[in-house]
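thread: overnight batch results

M.L. [08:02]
morning all. the overnight job finished for the chain we discussed friday. pasting input first so we're all looking at the same thing
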Amino acid sequence: VFKLDYFGKTATLAQSAQFYKQIMVGVFERVFEIGSTYRAEQSATTRHLSEFLTVDAEMGYIEFEDLQKLMGDLLLNIVHRSWTDYETLFKQWNANKAILPSTSEEIPRITINEIHDMFFKATKEDHREEGDLAPAEEKWICQWAKKNKNSEAVFVTGWSAKDKTFKFYHRASEADLEIAERADLLFRGIEITLSMRQNNYNVLVEQLRAMGGDPEDPGFAAYISAFKYGMPPHGGFGLGFERLIEKLFNLNNVKEATLFPRDINRLAP
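M.L. [08:03]
and the structure it wrote out:
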């Protein structure tokens, strides 16, 4: 996190809107926010920024399949509508329209373990014991899906509920407690993460404690209290705006998709 003095108190710049929008979904049912996000990650790559815009959404009274459909529909709408309205501009940048199916239900769904196995078989590069996808795997599976499934988008499912990628606010599948109700929507090699949240107060507190957190800590107390008297089943996603622009225009670096990119080496101007 980026720390700063806030009238004599220590504060941090926003890393995510998630906890706020979860609290709000209990009142408004569906919440969205577009705002700045700041991550103090030591990442000097073509896919990381220290300051970026996030398109955040949270939906109440839905289930995992509904969440995937909404996210898939949003991506399809963005791609098709932007090309309908701005095809001339895209062509000036030598951009190619993404190959995508006509409906979100047709976007391929592949488990993380299947991708590990497929990538190993194709490249002999082994990530099969890892709980997350390597960047090379994300890029490869989108290329594979483009060729074999006529889609440059892929839903990655089957994430473990026993791995460090499973956070205290995640919800495990009732059908299989070993699997998290989470998916990564990969688009041209970059991820858009979505998940169902744990809405049961007792389970949420238990998961937080099991991962070393204290529900009474000021950093958690206000968030946890919103669940105490009931919260509907809900889930949401965060979409990196600059990464989406990068892929829409077939750019090579996310820094090309923002006017004043901030990273570990660049603060000014």
